[in-house]
Amino acid sequence: MKKLCTAGMLLIAISAKLPAWAQWSGPKEKITEKKEIKYGPITPAHRTDEAMERFRDYGLGQFIHWGIYAIPGNEWEGVSARNGAAASEWIRSWRGPRAPKDWTKTYDNLYKQFDPKDFDAKRWAKQAKDMGAKYVIFTTKHHDGFAMWPTKYSDYNIRHTPYKKDIVKEIVDAYDAEGIDVYLYFSILEWNNPDYMSSEPKTEEEKRKSARFLAYTRNQLLELLENYPSIKGFWFDGTWDRSWVQAAEFTYNLEKELRAQHPGLIIGSRFRNDEYGKRHFDSNGNLLGDYEQGWERKLPQDYSWLNGNDWDAVMTIPPNGWGYMKDWSGLYIKDTNDLLDMLMHCVSMNGNFVLNFGPDGQGNMHPGEDRLAKEIGEWMTVNSEAVYGVRYIDLPLSKYGYYTKKESKLYLTVFNRPVNNRIRIAIQKDAEAVPVDAKLLGDAAVLTLTHADMGLDRDKNTYYDVQLPADFKADKPFVIKMTLGTAKSRAERLMDAKM
């Protein structure tokens, strides 16, 4: 026990030294002392323009991590990430005694083999459409620095592979054709670039290198906007190194330039920091960007943690498996019910759920990804009404699943079915609108709905019971759709016992 206490105290001490917002594991730090900030938010909080409202309505998205790291597939010469190699999309950074000889040089020449003969952007877009995705985030350039479009500003790009064609254009065109909005992932950090440095530049030579790199980054981002004007936003990564953090004035002006070139552009909170080095949120706690981008493989446990901000959660299927992983054996692989639970968790708190896919070097999704996409799509075909365009509703938490709301309609997605087939809905006694009818999505039959005034002492809630048919069968979560209206009966006010 003493060892456990010591370990716990150490963890608390370490956490206390981390920067604000670093853990994304609870309520955000309350700012008590306001600072004067030059490089704070550029766009207003809680934007109400058409582009941002569209973002709020997505519900479900797709992430695609694809690049030359798909060729190793999370392993090399029989050594996988579980035995010493770095994770798939990080594998170029592999170091240590088990790393292959001259590994960096080997990796940096893999682009000469990149020729995905099975790649069909239209097939991917059709799969995403059938799954129910409303937006896609596609990796234009990961930390290795390899560009999936024929950039004018680097030779390390798709044009110099055997494939040669502009993959980013193929993705944008195919997903646009399916009515799926496209966002572009872009890593600032670039291992392959000799001008990139992680530390803050000190010497004159380092400052010249840093200036060249910043100009190069600006050029590539403006190039992407020029080449693919239909995109809706950027999803940034690799912005934690001191070389980027210290360039607050530059990044502030760059964001302004990007937004001026593309009105309505949506940018997450990872892009930049204020002059004090605060990322995601400035030193006064204000969101830097249009939505919270810190929910990576994690979910908020309470709506209050979000402070009303827009957000999305990006999620892998294997644990931390973003790029292609040849071997899924021995790992917990999230199943359809896991993913649907996370989806409804997100949309019940005004967030979007973005599921990651890591195609192989030939342009095929992992067979497990194909199966999950099909199963999610089958569920969405029946139940998407409870996912798209819905909002949080302030109701007591349900032990059965998740509530969402759209205008006068209340949805309860049931994951935990009661043994008596009676779904009990708790509503505050002073609520102006209560359930007045109920049905199952995908079924026209009206369900029996009764007011159950339980009369619990000092209970602030009253209850409405929805009775499921005795012969109703479901092997997946199901959705009860209710209409909210004026209560037909009120909770009785009975004499309280004197104590």
Would you give an account of this structure?
The protein is globular. 36% of the residues are buried. With 499 residues, it is an alpha/beta fold. 25% of the residues lie in helices and 19% in strands. The N terminus is likely disordered. Strands 7-6-5-4-1-10-9-8 form an eight-stranded parallel beta sheet, sandwiched between helices.
Number of strands: 17
Sheet of most strands: 8 strands, parallel
What string gives the helices and strands in order? Answer: HHEEEHHEHEHEHHEEEHEHEEEEEEE
- Cα Rg: 25 Å
- The portion of residues assigned to helices is 10-25%
Q: What structural category do the secondary elements indicate?
A: alpha/beta
Residue share in β-strands: 15-25%
User: How widely separated are the two ends?
Assistant: 42 Å
Which secondary structure elements does this structure contain, and how are they paired or packed?
Elements: H1 2-17, H2 50-57, E1 60-64, E2 75-76, E3 79-80, H3 103-108, H4 121-131, E4 135-141, H5 167-177, E5 181-187, H6 204-227, E6 233-237, H7 242-245, H8 248-261, E7 266-267, E8 292-296, E9 311-315, H9 336-348, E10 351-357, H10 367-383, E11 401-406, E12 409-414, E13 422-428, E14 434-440, E15 446-452, E16 461-467, E17 478-485
Parallel strand pairs: 1-4, 1-10, 4-5, 5-6, 6-7, 8-9, 9-10
Antiparallel strand pairs: 2-3, 11-12, 12-17, 13-16, 14-15, 14-17, 15-16
Helix pairs in contact: 4-5, 4-10, 6-8
